[in-house]
Amino acid sequence: MTLGEVLNSEGRYGEAADFYLRAKLPYMAAWSYYRNRQAPEANAAADQALAMKRSVKYLMLKIEVTIALEDRNAALSLIAEIPASAYTDDRTASSVVNVALSLSDSEKVLEILRSTRVIGSRGLFRGRGSPALPT
């Protein structure tokens, strides 16, 4: 367990974020700042994380922070960067659908739903290449 994890577990999110930044872990710092309701600091740390690695995981963090900053257009722009191939992961597809719904972007919701299969009574997403669950 790292010092950052201990600080987070004690609810000392700002201190954890500062620790993560010193440790050059901006992704973790951004989440800690976000949990501490320090959106501008979370945004700056998320930018640093994205500069290090532009991945779906880091984009999803930046989208969350951008929504907290109430910047709808920036959030929509970031959503557009997520490749359709990422929608084969159930969590990514459902997360992006929820964000797009919250931003009233019905076209993005339909795009994601068209690229996945909804199965089961719980409405789980399955990517196109995924085997169907037995009924």
Describe the structure concisely for a colleague:
The chain has about 140 residues and is mostly helical.
Notes on the structure:
Mean pLDDT is 85; it is low at 129-135. The protein is elongated, with a radius of gyration of 17 Å. The longest helix is centred in the middle third of the chain and has 14 residues, at 39-52. Strand 1 (116-119) and strand 2 form a beta hairpin. The protein has a two-stranded antiparallel ribbon with strand order 1-2. The chain is built from eight helices and two strands; from the N terminus they run H-H-H-H-H-H-H-H-E-E. Helix 1 packs antiparallel against helix 2 (13-22) and helix 5 packs antiparallel against helix 6 (72-81). It has two domains: 1-81, Alpha Horseshoe (Serine Threonine Protein Phosphatase 5, Tetratricopeptide repeat); 83-135, no CATH class. It has helices at residues 3-9, 13-22, 26-35, 39-52, 56-68, 72-81, 90-102, 106-114, and strands spanning 116-119, 124-127. It is mostly helical and 135 residues long.
